[in-house]
Specification:
Elements lengths: L3 E8 L2 E2 L21 H11 L7 E7 L3 H11 L3 H8 L6 E4 L5 E11 L4 E12 L2 E7 L6 H9 L1 H4 L4 H33 L8 H19 L3 H8 L11 H64 L14 H22 L4
Parallel strand pairs: 3-7
Antiparallel strand pairs: 1-2, 1-3, 4-5, 5-6, 6-7
Helix pairs in contact: 2-3, 4-6, 6-7, 6-9, 7-9, 8-9, 9-10
Length: 347
């Protein structure tokens, strides 16, 4: 798989040369076609300096450590941030360096409609003077549509490399909303099953699975809450004033997803308690029914036990109506017991 899945150089007026999304490797020398990717990156980087808002955007997919080091060398990226970008198990964050560069790490989310699972990936975004570098891990968060948006939007390109940060964050957070809507639909379905007559036998397991899905969304969103408040209140100081309204929208969406995660978590806990209580109630009802039938069955059992002792001196054995009388008494007692249990809701 080629490491570079997108390469472009932009400025406010359009693109610099006809750069496409052809997959590329970062090779030590020239590739088989005779074109050095390193030389092309350096050429594009230098070409952007002729434009006020010019920048290069390089999109990497599952790069190796040497490939990341090569990109870091070309764009002078910090080594610790490169290590974070190369590790797909990092925590989401937004860091601003003393040089004014911004390193953003986001978890990407995807919803599998067949299994109803939430899958996670990661995208790291380096933004600095004249460059935007994205490092993506996992199948989710494809940036082809984001690059096309950047190509077609002169308004975004006017903001230089920060347009990459905004476009990628906007697409990623929009996916959070879509995934959270899908999880909410699953929660509504399970809620219906919990309170349906009889209920589903595996409803407790499904609630647990939904809590795991919700936890995946929580892990992606919770680390961004603080910076989301800064975005929403337009207090993120590294951001120029003209871009703050754009990031305010992102901040509001993150906070919306965060609120939805907390609401769903509380609802799932309530549903779990309700499901457990209803299962206990059903078990108690079954126990009462069993006890009631045992009590009714005890009457003929006792009568049969008494007459089964075969004592010789039992006057009623010689009565002509003794046998039907005993049967009638047993039936009456059983009927009275059944009536009493029925009135009390045991049967």
């Amino acid at each position: 798989m080629s490491v570079i899945r997108g390469l472009g150089a932009f400025h406010s007026g359009g693109t610099i040369e006809a750069v496409d999304d052809t997959p590329r490797h970062i090779a030590d020398g020239d590739d088989p076609a005779g074109v050095s990717v390193r030389a092309q990156l350096l050429e594009l980087r230098d070409a952007t300096t002729a434009y006020e808002n010019g920048f290069v955007w390089v999109g990497l997919l599952d790069p190796t450590a040497p490939e990341l080091d090569a990109i870091g060398e070309i764009f002078e990226l910090e080594s610790l941030q490169l290590d974070d970008a190369g590790n797909p198990r990092q925590r989401a964050k937004v860091d601003v360096s003393e040089r004014g560069t911004i390193f953003t790490l986001l978890k990407t989310l995807g919803y599998d409609e067949h299994t109803a699972d939430v899958d996670t990936g990661q995208v790291a975004i380096f933004t600095g003077p004249g460059y935007g570098v994205t490092v993506r891990h996992g199948p989710h968060g494809d940036l082809a549509t984001v690059r096309e948006r950047l190509r077609s939007s002169a308004t975004l390109r006017e903001h230089g490399s920060l347009a990459v940060l905004y476009a990628v964050m906007d697409a990623t957070v929009d996916e959070y909303l879509a995934v959270m809507d899908a999880v909410t639909d699953d929660v509504n379905e399970v809620e219906t099953e919990v309170f349906a007559p009889g209920g589903a036998s595996d409803v407790t397991r499904r609630i647990y699975e939904l809590k795991r899905e919700n936890m995946e969304v929580r892990r992606a969103v919770n680390p961004l809450v603080r910076v989301a408040h800064d975005f929403a209140e337009e207090e993120f100081t590294p951001m120029p004033e003209e871009l703050k309204p754009y990031f305010r929208d992102i901040g509001e969406h993150v906070l919306r997803v965060h609120d939805a995660v907390e609401s769903v978590d509380s609802l799932l806990m309530t549903m779990l308690m309700a499901s457990t209580a209803m299962q206990d109630l059903q078990q108690n009802s079954d126990t009462r029914k069993i006890s009631a039938w045992v009590a009714i069955a005890a009457v003929p059992t006792v009568a049969g036990g008494v007459y089964g002792m075969n004592f010789a001196n039992m006057p009623e054995l010689s009565w002509e109506w003794g046998y039907p009388t005993v049967l009638a008494v047993i039936a009456i007692i059983c009927g009275l017991l059944y009536r009493g249990f029925k009135r009390n809701g045991w049967l």
